[in-house]
């Protein structure tokens, strides 16, 4: 596909005009940004449509190319990077999701190291990893606490999970957050010639704006792994208007669920008066597309985890845990020790269950410590452990313990074995972007004797698994969780198999590889897909796949006009009107294509600009 600079290098007019110049948008003023455009571009389906002789063979070939899966040289940017070791525990859903993408695609993955630096800019420390490369940055020590512990995890994290009472932070935290984002953007400048940038999660909301300000012209996309908050909740976030403005500098924004996507659109509408049309929001910067991309897992790889050998130490750890249950039923919960995961409410539900059904089912709660240096998390850990000790003291016996609790981390292969042995998977976060544990639990089950998934209706996975598959509960109501666990523990085999088979079919039909390919395919639509000589015909900008139908409409209308006998005045005038309308629809979109404008004439039915046509006002 033709790149921007290639188009600039080759752009000359048939009429002998000078080469095109690309205009840089100036910063969007507050008043200008708040006032959305009165006239919206007309949206059409991005379908290539039937072949037409009025469109060149070269353009037809490019239409075929863009409909295929793109082969992009990606730059992936996130705060954290996976360990790339199957024997090491995963530290979160984001890293588990991106590790196979980078290993298989040849991407460059940029993130933070465990070391803090002095803020000095250095060449990217690229380390080969599979087909890709990893660059771990030493983020500036002076700003890291405000960026990570402060604004990211004490302000944004609780806000995104609709827990305003847990929010804290300062204006200086936000300043550190912005400076760290700028530092990462400047580091990424070293790989500015790769095809596209894919940024991840709430730590890096403004990174696209920083890349844009540095002059990086490649398509930029952002994916949010957490939920997105409602318009009233976002008012609690300091600098929320500036953050959302910076997010609209991305070409593509991805969300886990329809709920999160709709919440973001509602925030734009409420706080900026901006409306979307067919998932496209237009500002003076250009167009930002918004779509849902629900993360999956790789069921085949998870099956391989079940068959993989464990290290002797981990094998001993898993065997020791399973011996505690001695063939009795147990449920499993696997969560970071985070207040958004609802572990305290889950423990309360088991307490209620044991009052009604003593010794009916045990719970194995795996909860690796998270942000252990933060007081809020220390207090939550203490609350959870006190609750577990109370349940064990109240309902346990010398021979039977209700809740087995560990802060150890486990590899994916070890978790797969524990999931498979558990008759109930309990995934009850207060809110979650997706929650891959729910999908991993399903993937690990024995097809002949599967367990049952109890799932929070506020986890993103609940949009994938309906009430005929998982047992959906309100995670803030322990009585609902208790009833679901009881139902799951007593569910007949036939119903368990039916529910599991339906969920497994979904996991196999949309894997993590489908997720990444879908996102990259959409991001690829922001690249130039019309050759330079065709761009000259378009005139007011370059186009991408999303605009190809409008280009085709104009080309067909112009060809129709040229084929009509001038003697047929009425038909000629009607064709001229059709051509003018098609041109105006195309021009309106081109005026806002990534905020980068060319100023070239475009042939019309009268051979000049529309304002030069008779009667043009």
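Sequence proposed for the structure above (617 residues):
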């Amino acid at each position: 596909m033709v790149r921007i600079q290639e188009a600039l290098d080759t752009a000359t007019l048939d009429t002998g005009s000078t080469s095109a110049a690309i205009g840089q948008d100036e910063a969007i003023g507050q008043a200008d940004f708040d006032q959305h455009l009165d006239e919206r571009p007309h949206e059409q389906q991005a379908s290539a449509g039937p072949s037409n002789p009025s469109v060149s063979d070269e353009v037809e070939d490019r239409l075929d190319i863009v409909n295929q899966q793109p082969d992009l040289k990606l730059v992936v940017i996130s705060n954290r990077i996976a360990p790339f070791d199957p024997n090491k525990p995963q530290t979160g859903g984001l890293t588990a999701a991106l590790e196979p993408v980078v290993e298989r695609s040849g991407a460059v993955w940029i993130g933070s190291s465990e070391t803090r630096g002095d803020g000095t800019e250095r060449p990217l420390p690229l380390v080969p990893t599979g087909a890709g490369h990893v660059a771990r940055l030493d983020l500036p020590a002076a700003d890291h606490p405000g960026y990570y512990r402060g604004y990211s995890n004490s302000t944004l994290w609780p806000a995104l999970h609709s827990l305003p009472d847990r929010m804290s932070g300062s204006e200086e935290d936000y300043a550190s957050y912005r400076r760290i984002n700028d530092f990462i953007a400047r580091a990424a400048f070293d790989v500015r010639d790769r095809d596209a940038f894919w940024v991840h999660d709430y730590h890096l909301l403004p990174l696209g704006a920083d890349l844009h300000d540095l002059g990086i012209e490649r398509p930029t996309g952002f994916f949010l792994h957490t939920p997105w908050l409602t318009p009233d909740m976002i008012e609690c976030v300091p600098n929320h208007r500036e953050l959302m403005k910076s997010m609209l500098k991305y070409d593509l924004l991805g969300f886990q669920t329809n709920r999160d996507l709709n919440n973001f659109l509602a925030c734009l509408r409420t706080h900026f008066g901006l409306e979307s049309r067919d998932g496209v929001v237009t500002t003076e910067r250009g167009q930002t597309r918004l779509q849902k991309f629900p993360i999956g897992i790789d069921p085949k790889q998870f099956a391989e985890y079940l068959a993989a050998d464990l290290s002797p130490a981990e094998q001993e750890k898993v065997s020791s845990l399973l011996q505690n249950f001695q063939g009795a039923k147990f449920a499993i919960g696997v969560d970071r020790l985070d207040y958004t995961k609802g572990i305290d409410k889950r423990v309360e539900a088991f307490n209620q269950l044991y009052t009604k059904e003593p010794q009916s089912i045990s719970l194995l709660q795996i909860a690796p410590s998270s942000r252990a240096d933060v007081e809020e998390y220390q207090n939550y850990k203490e609350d959870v452990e006190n609750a577990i000790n109370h349940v064990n003291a109240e309902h346990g016996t010398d021979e039977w313990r209700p809740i087995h609790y560990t802060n150890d981390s486990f590899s994916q292969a070890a978790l797969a074995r524990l999931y498979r042995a558990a008759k109930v998977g309990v995934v009850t976060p207060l809110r979650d972007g997706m929650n891959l544990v729910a999908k991993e639990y399903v993937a690990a089950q024995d097809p002949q004797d599967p367990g049952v998934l109890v799932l929070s209706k506020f986890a993103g996975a609940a949009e994938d698994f309906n009430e005929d598959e998982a047992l959906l509960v309100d995670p803030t109501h322990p009585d609902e969780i208790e009833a679901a666990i009881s139902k799951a523990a007593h569910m007949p085999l036939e119903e368990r198999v039916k529910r599991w088979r339906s969920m497994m079919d979904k996991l196999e039909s949309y894997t993590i590889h489908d997720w990444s390919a879908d996102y990259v395919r959409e991001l690829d639509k922001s690249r130039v897909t019309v050759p330079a000589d065709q761009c000259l015909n378009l005139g007011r900008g370059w186009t991408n796949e999303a605009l190809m139908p409008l280009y085709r409409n104009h080309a067909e209308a112009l060809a129709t006009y040229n084929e009509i006998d001038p003697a047929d005045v009425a038909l000629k005038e009607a064709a001229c009107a059709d051509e003018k309308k098609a041109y105006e629809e195309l021009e309106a979109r081109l005026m806002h294509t990534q905020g980068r404008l060319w100023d070239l004439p475009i042939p019309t039915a009268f051979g000049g600009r529309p304002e030069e046509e008779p009667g043009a006002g």
